[in-house]
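Reopening this ticket.

The earlier resolution said the output was attached, but the attachment link was broken on my side. Pasting everything inline this time so it's all in one place.
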Amino acid sequence: MRDQQEFLAERFEAHRGHLRAVAYRMLGSLNEADDAVQEAWLRLSRSDADAVHNLGGWLTTVVGRVCLDMLRSRTSLREEPLETRLPDPVIGREDAADPEHAALLADSVGLALLVVLETLAPAERLAFVLHDMFGVPFDEIAPVVGRTPAAARQLASRARRRVRGTAPAPDPDLARQREVVDAFLAAARRGDFDTLLSLLDPDVVLRADYGDAPALAPSRLRGATAVAGQAMAFRPPAGVAATARRALVNGAAGQVVFRQGRVFSVMGFTVRDGKIAAIDILADPARLAHLDLSALDD
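Inline output:
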C-alpha cells in the first residue's frame, strides 16, 4: 500500500508545475494556487487512480473545478468589488533563468493580462484559461461549469474578446523593454515631463493596489498626460532612503523599490511597440511583506 501511494505521489509531482500554472492563472494568487493544487492531490489520493486513463487531463479539470469554487466563494464574500486588485506578482532576476518561474509564466502571463482575468466572471475565466491557455476541449470544460460544450465555447469567446480589447500583448524583446522602462524611470527622476510623454502609449493605463493602506495616489489613471504627471511623484520624499532594483515582474521588465530597508512597491511594465502601455504597481504593505523576493538575493 505504501509503495502504491509513493508511486501515485511521484506521478502527481510530475504534474505539479503544470497544475500550479493553471491555478495561478485562475486565481492570481500564489498561496491560493498552492492550496488548489494540494486539494487536487487530496482528491486524487481518495480516488481510484487506476481508473484514470489520462492523469494530466483529469488533474487539470480537478484543479479547474477547485479554482472555480474558490473564485465563486471569493465573489460571494466580497461585499463590494475592489477598485483595483492586482494579482500576486512573480519576481525574478533578469540575469538568471529560473525554470520554476518559466513554467509558471509560460505564454507571457503578464500582470496586465492577469488584471483583465480578474474582471471576468468565474465561469468565463475558467473556460478561457483551460481552453485558450491549456488546450482543454470544451466537452471536458462543460461539466465543470455545468453548461453544454456550446455554452462553454461561448463563455471562452466572451472572455477572449475582453482580453484582446484590454490586455496589450507585450513586446517579446526583453532588452528593448528594459531600454524603454529605464528611460521612463530616469525621466521620472529628472522630472522630465516631455520625455515621459514620449515613452507612454496615448492610452496607457496605470493601476495601483494599496490594499487597506491609505492611497498615496489615484489607484487608476488612463492617458499619457495623467500617467506622466503621476510619474513625477515616483521620486521618494526628501530624506527618505530609497533604492530600486531591476527585476522581472511576471517575465517582463520591472522594478522593486525599497524604502528604509523594506520593500515599498513592485512595479510591472507592459511595453508594446516601444511604448509603455500599462504600469501595474503593488503597494499593499500587507501583501508586500509576504512577497517572495528570494530570486533577487545575490
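Reporter confirms the inline version is readable. The chain has a mean pLDDT of 87. Strands lie at 91-92, 200-209, 220-222, 242-249, 252-259, 262-272, 275-282.
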